[in-house]
Each structure stands twice: as C-alpha cells, then as structure tokens.
Write a structure and sequence with these properties.
289 residues; alpha/beta; D-Maltodextrin-Binding Protein, domain 2; 2 domains; seven-stranded mixed sheet; 10 helices; 42% helix; WH-like_DNA-bd_sf; transcription
Length: 289
C-alpha cells in the first residue's frame, strides 16, 4: 500500500462511484478497478460491493477507509513538518473560504501575502460556510474563513462585521415590505434563520416572494434593476449609493450583525506558512480591501 492507494480509498468513499473517482484522480476506470483489486488481494478481503446506486463498502472496507484518512493526515503532517524545518516560508497552504470572501476579499489578500512569501502555493476550496467549518474540523484544510457565528472550539479570529439590511432601488418604509416583491436567494442556514426570525417577529403574514435566485450577488443585481427588494449583508451593496437600505434590528433595537471569522486548529500554526498567514491576516483592515 502506498499513498496513492490510501487516496483511492478516501476519494472512493467520498464519491461512492467508480467513474467519478477515476475522473477525480485523473486515472482510467480500468486502472482504478485494477488498483482496487490489488488492495483487496493485499488484505485478502472484499472492500466494496457494486450496486445500481453506486458502490458500498464492506465492514472491512469501512475500516480501511478510516485507516486511509488517518494515514493521509499523518503523511501530510510529515511533509509539512519536514518542510517546516527549512528557514524559508514555503509549502502549499490549504484554505477553505465562503463564496463571498472568495470573490471579493481573497484575491487581494493572497496577492499581498504572496508579495511577502512568494514561495507559498495555495489550494483554495470555496463553498457554504457550514461546509467550510466541517473541513477545518476534519483537518482537510489548514484555515477556514466563514461568515456567521458557528460553534468552534479551536482558535478563531474576527475579521470584520457587517449589517444585515433590507435593500431596494427606491425609498421605502419597512411596514410596506409584506406588499412588496422580495428577491429570495440561496444562503447558509444561519443567515436564513436570522432573517426568518426577524420577519416572523415583525410581520404576521408571509413575505411576497417575487423571484428566487441562486446567490446574494445575483439578488443584488436584481435589486439594482428595480425588480424587488432583498435582505442582504451590507458588504454586498457597498459602493452602490443608488440603493436604499434599512438595517434590521433585534428585540433590543440593536442592528443585526453578520460576522466573518477565521477558524483554525492551534497546532497547525506550528507550520511556518500557516503561522505567518494567520499573523498577516489578523493585521489587515478588511474594510479597506
């Protein structure tokens, strides 16, 4: 068994499909099937069953998958520790960031960081914040940058805050909202819960959903074109002075705030590139980026 075999087991468990696993690992399907058979011959046990809905692992296969994840984690740590013994800050930094941060903040952040540490490479994963939190927890990434107050027992740093606003192209009063078309969009469960709780506390009737779109940035463009109002974090509408916004407030009359955090495990800062990235990111004023 080598690193490639452990990786095959890990990805196969994630994809639950031979074809998708082969595509993900950039190998042919026959070659993948042969490697799986070699693994089974090595341990002299069947590790998967093929069915109409994909593949299922045998109990022995499940055990080997857990071993594979542990082995890959140990190998990664060994590589990083060996690389960390050099004086230079170098290596591949694995980041997981929310979709908004990836689009509006990350490029500038990495550009500035790379100017100081040009030998660092990056592997960036984007997605919903709750998925990023899981990736940090399972150590699939070094650092996660998420929007929202997720439970996290490790180290964390607040990067910036933003208001949650009702935003429209035309001036409006909050009491008019139930009769105005709203542009709804997919977002993480934390923000949706905050918005729904505010609405149910403020109005007795359901919102008038005039349109559903995929993301907050799409919602913003629809609002700019006067197709309805949106309930959006203020960072999305910065610089659009033509829009009219009213901050949402909680029961005490305080503005509802959405926070962006950097999550990581403290022991990962033993790696120089991770430690330097954390220090560098903590020093920035993200309102100016």
């Amino acid at each position: 068994m080598d690193e490639r075999d452990w990786l095959i087991l890990k990805v196969l468990n994630e994809k639950k499909n031979i074809t998708k696993t082969a595509q993900s690992l950039y190998i042919s399907q026959p070659s993948l099937t042969k490697r799986i058979q070699q693994i089974e011959n090595t341990f002299q046990v069947p590790i998967i069953h093929r069915g109409t809905k994909g593949i299922q692992f045998t109990p022995q296969g499940d055990y080997l998958v857990k071993c594979a994840e542990d082995m890959l984690s140990r190998l990664q740590k060994m590589k990083e520790t060996a690389l960390n013994m050099e004086q230079e800050v170098s290596g591949t930094l694995r980041l997981g960031v929310s979709n908004y941060f990836a689009r509006y903040k990350l490029p500038c952040l990495l550009k500035m960081f790379q100017q100081q540490f040009p030998k660092v490479n990056y592997k960036v994963t984007t997605g919903w914040s709750h998925d990023i939190v899981n990736m940090v927890y399972h150590r699939d990434i070094h650092i996660g940058i998420v929007r929202g107050d997720y439970q996290w027992a490790g180290s964390k740093q607040l990067l910036f805050e933003e208001n949650i606003n009702v935003t429209s192209k035309k001036p409006f009063d909050l009491k008019e909202l139930p009769s105005m078309p709203r542009i709804d969009y997919e977002t993480d469960s934390l923000l949706k819960t905050v918005i729904d709780h505010w609405w149910n506390r403020t109005f007795s009737q359901s919102p008038l959903i005039g349109m559903e779109v995929d993301k907050g940035v799409t919602c913003k463009e629809m609002v700019i074109n006067d197709l309805g109002y949106g309930i959006l974090p203020s960072a999305l509408t910065e610089g659009h002075d033509e829009l009219h916004s009213i901050p949402l407030k909680d029961e005490k009359g305080e503005p509802l705030i959405r926070k962006t955090w950097m999550f990581y495990h403290e022991d990962t800062t033993e790696v120089k590139m991770v430690r330097e990235f954390v220090r560098f990111t903590e020093s920035l004023d993200f309102k100016k980026i």
